[in-house]
Amino acid sequence: MTLGFCSFSSGSSGNCYMVRSNTTALLVDAGISGKKIWEGLERTQTPREMVTALLITHEHSDHTKSVGTVSKKQKDLCVYASEGTWDKITAPVAEHQRRCFQAGDAFEIGDIQVKTFRVSHDAADPVGYSFYSGDRQISIVTDTGYVREETMEEMTGADILVLEANHDVDMLRIGKYPWFLKQRVLSDEGHLSNEAAGNALVDLISRREKERCVLLAHLSRENNFPEMAYQTVKNILEEANYYIGKHVFLDTLLRDTVSSLYEI
User: Fold this and answer.
1) Which of 25, 96, 128, 217 has the fewest CB atoms within 10 Å, i.e. is most exposed?
2) What's the mean pLDDT in 196-203?
3) Is residue 31 a contact partner of residue 63, using CB atoms and an 8 Å limit?
């Protein structure tokens, strides 16, 4: 049985991912228009009826913009969010579609096992997700100011790891963001920088070397660009004697582009 991942959009302006097995498809976040989500499903040849659940990481609008639209259009869709996140979501979601959990909970959706874990972000109750099918694992770690030990342990077994590389620190510091926003992004409840992502990967590989695909995600429109994120992480890995193509496969998810379908 295969387990696949596709990004419909990844960035500070909107996020939506799909995780798919042979029989079940799940959406992670709905921070783009419903139209773009349906187009992503068509591009990946994923029937709408195959999508049984939408899982929310946290309540910020770049992750929840179309929660109400998607749940209304697909009335049998189950929408999962942590207890604290549900308290902050204002989108109208029918009671029978709501599913609530606490960070650390695990559950099954179709033939995919889901594990939730806490991340560090300035939201009510933010989480990351891991998805399992047999011995295959996909983990999504974005919107976190640093990588907690709990998160690092969860990432270690991932065959596909979606890891935030939100900003270049120097670009952010000299950029047009107001001071308070710069401080927010740089804080332990903000976003991972390119350098932080690279250092996290060095730690990850040092703990366990395995065939692993890492996808850099949630890049800032104003304070980063794909080539910089990729090159910064590549340089940090090589300084630790880890090499792309040998120790890890590395790619970057684009903000407004449906990605390849990565399968394991």
Assistant:
1) 96
2) 98
3) yes
Read off the pLDDT of residues 75-101 as tens digits, 9 standing for 90 and up.
999 999 999 999 999 999 999 999 999
pLDDT at 185 over 90: yes
Range of the domain at 139: 4-263
- What CATH number does the domain containing 35 carry? 3.60.15.10
DSSP 134: T
Question: Angle 244-247-252 (CA atoms, 0-180°, nearest 5)?
Answer: 45
Q: DSSP string spanning 32-67? A: S-HHHHHHHHHHTT--GGGEEEEE-S-SSHHHHTTH
Q: 75 near 47, Cβ under 8 Å?
A: no
How far apart CA 27 and CA 223 sit, in angstroms, is 27
Instruction: Judge if pTM exceeds 0.90.
Output: yes
Element holding 153 (H helix, E strand): helix 149-155
Q: What digits encode the pLDDT tens for the residues 48-67? A: 999 999 999 999 999 999 99
12 pLDDT above the threshold of 90: no
Given a contact cutoff of 8 angstroms between Cβ atoms, the answer to whether 226 and 168 are in contact is no
In the numeric block, the tokens 């932080």 are attached to 196
Q: How many domains does the chain have?
A: 1
